[in-house]
Specification:
Chains A, B, C, D: Pathway: Metabolic intermediate biosynthesis; chorismate biosynthesis; chorismate from D-erythrose 4-phosphate and phosphoenolpyruvate: step 7/7. Chains A, B, C, D: Its EC number is 4.2.3.5. 4 copies of one chain form a homotetramer. Chain A contains 7 helices and 19 strands. Chain A is α+β, with helices and mostly antiparallel strands and 364 residues long. The first copy, chain A, has a single domain, classed as Chorismate synthase, AroC fold, CATH 3.60.150. In chain A, the strands form 6 sheets. Chain A has a 5-stranded antiparallel β-sheet with strand order 1-2-3-8-5, with helices on one face. In chain A, strands 10-9-11-17-12 form a 5-stranded antiparallel β-sheet. Chain A has a 3-stranded antiparallel β-sheet with strand order 4-7-6. At the B-D interface, β2, β3 and β8 of B face β2, β3 and β8 of D. β12 of chain A pairs antiparallel with β12 of chain B, so a sheet runs across the interface.
């Protein structure tokens, strides 16, 4: 991938910092003839929006998305894509630059301050600039478009671990995900996470998390070996999300612990006369190509480095300093990463759907 | 990345199947003026070569690499890169197509047979064709060139887990890696793995593994946010290796379990007057950009699905069949994946080195 | 190049139609640390702006460019690039959609109406939508940034032919270009073109033109053979401009008529002790790589197909119709193409400058 | 395009110099299921092969192409593409390196010797190395595959001008092209060119030429505005051919001389009830998208700079020298450029066919 662009035929270029006038995405290669409403995009942005519970940052950002190009407005208020680039813009509203004044020269440990300064010799310190998780709002808007590209695909995500507290997978219920502030699929974990995160929050601390994203209904055959494997591009997309430190597909790291007998998914002919897998250890991908089974990926988010405890650091004049990050931050950024992970999965699948249609002509 | 090409300025395009006349790589964008010998490439191929111990496949492939273009031969037998594409070719020698005859139509569970057939409608079943791990020989050759691009960088890998047997990190000694058939950095694990793998091998079974690859001496500032983050491209490269199901950087999935205080790497001014990190939980990358600390990545390899036990499957005529994979296979393909992981790390770093030099002009 | 993106390291993605809320460009890969003012961009947009003489369209568009990201605002009103994507936006103001109502279904001969409809099944007929020359405003803004990337390069353009009326090259004077409404370098052609274009304009007709663009001060060595030759990418950039039907470098088509003795540029050592070319038939490029001589390219623009004479055509219901294009159009679109050609040349050179610096590390 | 790769979905990467062991192309993205024979490729290489008349270089190269990967061999000797990269190799046989010894340090005027040395600091002087027209053999092989991608498309080329001697277009007869050593479509020009080229050849001189390439049967709708216009990519492909200095589509530079009334192609409903153009001034492309009419492009080739007359030049030690190019060269390289132009047109159309199928799903 190139700089700020993700994808090959369905290409998403994002731009913008947390404290400029706006941020956005240009979605290039979206097929023509797709009808959608602004709400089809906004509803996903609202899932990611801060300030929705005490467990996420209290910044207030309405994150209202505008569509600036690439569509023909229809009389009923909907739009139809024309095949030309769709420019999406989200204006920044709640900017408190003064919160960041004192870290203009100080490198916050665990943040990208130092590395941006080394690389570029200049850094937009306001809110983290381009390295701010706010950039992910543009991804979510683009991902909402990506979902419309393939009919019949359902893409959902859930939080499966906060700190050392994991969900019980036996309790998995997708319907629960929207019923709690954590996107938790297991209702029994909710009170555990609540009390744990309250503790973290009160201590001015933060903690990591693991998110699982699943795509159902993806046709078999997507993915372009060798260097555009579907799992490779999913890993690339998920690892591009701020603070992600690990990605796995299907059994993931667990596959290292087991034998070939345990890991391989056997096949049979299903009652509908079609090929059927008897298990899905592969997470829906074999040899870089989708099997038709649900695509299952997980990614680990580190605890945000914005914490109230003083940490040792340096500044850009090479003085040793102690840094304490004030401002309004997420005790667990992993929560709001759920819709972002869904968006990256959606973009990756849409891209490969178009690519496969191009190379093989199999699919409509 | 595009189909069979990896990289943006340092571009590696691989081609070839396990049972055609040859396979190879075209390395495009290699800087001019790099002097090397054939042995600089061959030595890495030899590390990956099969048949070197009883723990890897007994196929005999000499894997002799030829350089067909992009260099000026020198009188001392060395070559100097001219800046034009370097074409590397490895001829296939030990092909026993008959071993594969009976699986021409049968889908081996856990292999890419089914997905290739669905996607392409045709499949080179001989030795797995393009999905064979043999393709990684071309990567290793290209990776050997990539190593020559940045002076002062050391890239090494080691096996850290086979099945449930993990090394003791306190014993880590790079010098041990070449002293045992497992690339193990911990001499105490060697007898454990030996007896475990003998068992696996005799049972005609297989098992997964975890590999760690480390790059030392990488200058701070490499990586192009947002969609060409260094960790993203490392994840992309490692996940493109056959059988890889998970990738992590630094603390990886472990970062999900800890707090911001525990995870962030503090900084001080070192005795040399330069910025210094007091720890490396980040694995050498912050905000997608290298910190100057060692880059540390791990990846999980699933057990090969080529096992002697019969597994339920189907064939391309939609008959239900039982499949037992004969032929000469690796009880733990993870072992030979060590030099492949190194190669992908080397290619990624070389690419970002050239890209950074292009965009910022900081480095020589 | 990919869809709506031009360039490899210096990447320009444009978006927007003539009658949506805005259009713009995302410039990705601009080096950090470049200081500029809004006027550095606006001045080039003003050259392209319509309504400046009776020889161009009378639409009124202020074409005010906004910088939405990628810069740190400075106290003196200037900005410094940060190395992150620079989002440029130009709001559309003078939209008279009613002018286009009656051609919503009719295919204007010579326009892209028919081909867009065939390809996409839907078309933004308002002002030509994405195929409108208005898109070139975004290029000019991006080109203004590209000019800042390489110090010491001067990029200029001039109109050298309208209809059959060519300038006299012996009269070439760059200072004249800004002194007449045609960007003519030859003052003697001005009255000829005036009376000719008045005639064309009054007849509701249109006519073609040839533009020459020149880059001086380009260092030798830019261009990446074989498929990223500098002349190839210049041809690609110029041919991407609306209505361009031909591109030539140096002697161009004239080179077909002469002998090797006449065409090759001889060399000597100059008075400064450096290599010197005795002529520049090559237009500053040999083997796809810049020689250090001025880069000289010409491109031919067809007459706009928006004319008042009725022409035979069809509509999207496959009725035969006669079409007469009302609205405010350019009798010679070639005039306003001069700054656009300059912009594409600037973007191409900036891209190759960064690429060369990346691959060879020669240049600062 | 990137370095040595042409195309986006149908990607051709060429490698190799004129005097290394071999040269070749990796064709990545070729659709699966295409059946072809070696002769389907070889027949086009034979058209380009040197030594076929006294009007082209007398080097003897058999240019036998081998297919190293990406196909399943069939019992009848044909092959079927599998969708994986097709590696094509042509071994170099007739290498007389001694011919080039004395120009190892001398820059031949009009050649790429100087620019390669400036850029790379090293140059393969043997036969021009990578800048040799021999590289085009790999393009022709790849182009032969590209032709197989779209059913029903015919791609042909002809020489239309040598020096100042143009064909009479009224005499155009495609059947004549294979009947003379010039690929001339006008039998009356043949004796003119013969005597003119004999003169040029005997004088040790060279002359330029213009080639016209035409694609018939291309469906309407190919081309991806704005920066992947079909004409843009055709211009890019043709300008990438060695010695090309100009490219035009349809009326080309002639369009600059005429009015909108003369240039626009009117439309009617044809006898088959389908849209029909009444002329083809546009050369089959409007707004960057194919109209369904024949695609017509022309390109100008400069006279080769390898001539027997001494020319003033310098060497790499900055001495002034006189250079006379011995060796076996083409008096008019334009002749052998005909199949190369066809190949680039074929590759461009194949790429856009796959891209369009990917984005819009219209075509099979």
């Amino acid at each position: 991938m190139s700089h700020n662009t993700f994808g090959h035929l369905f290409r998403v270029t994002t731009w913008g910092e947390s404290h400029g006038p706006a941020l956005g995405a240009v979605v290039d290669g979206c097929p023509p003839g797709i009808r959608f409403t602004l709400d089809d995009l906004q509803s996903f942005l609202d899932k990611r929006k801060p300030g929705q519970s005490r467990f996420v940052t209290q910044r207030r950002e309405d994150d209202l998305v505008k569509v600036l190009s690439g569509v023909m407005p229809q009389e009923d208020g909907s739009m139809i894509s024309t095949g030309t680039p769709i420019s999406l813009m989200i204006e920044n509203t709640d900017q408190r630059s003064k919160d960041y004044g004192e870290i203009a020269k100080r490198y916050r440990p665990g943040h990208a301050d130092y590395t941006y300064d080394v690389k570029y010799g200049i850094r937009d310190y306001r809110g983290g600039g381009r390295s701010s998780a706010r950039e992910t709002a543009a991804r979510v808007a683009a991902g909402a478009l990506a979902r419309l590209v393939i009919p019949g695909v359902t893409i959902r995500g859930a939080l499966v671990q906060i700190g050392k507290h994991r969900i019980n997978r036996a309790n998995w219920d997708w319907a629960q995900v929207s019923e709690n502030p954590f996107f938790a699929p297991d209702p029994e974990i909710v009170p555990v996470w609540e009390s744990y995160l309250d503790e973290i929050r009160k201590a001015g601390s933060s903690v990591g998390a693991v998110i699982e994203v699943v795509a159902e209904g993806v046709p078999a055959g997507l993915g372009a070996p060798i260097y555009a494997k579907l799992d490779q591009d999913i890993a690339s997309g998920l690892m591009s999300i701020n603070a992600v430190k690990g990605v796995e597909i299907g059994n993931g790291f667990g596959a290292a612990e087991i034998t070939g007998e345990e890991n391989a998914d056997e096949m049979r002919i299903g009652p509908d006369g079609k090929p059927m897998f008897l298990s899905n250890h592969a997470g829906g991908i074999l040899g870089g190509i989708s099997t038709g089974e649900p695509i299952v990926a997980r990614f680990a988010i580190k605890p945000t480095s914005s914490i109230l405890t003083e940490r040792r650091s340096i500044d850009s004049d090479l003085n040793e300093v102690d840094v304490r990050t004030k401002g309004r931050h997420d005790p667990c950024v992993g929560i709001r990463a759920v819709p972002v992970g869904e968006a990256m999965l959606a973009c990756t699948i849409a891209d490969h759907y178009l690519r496969d249609r191009g190379q093989t002509g199999r699919l409509k």
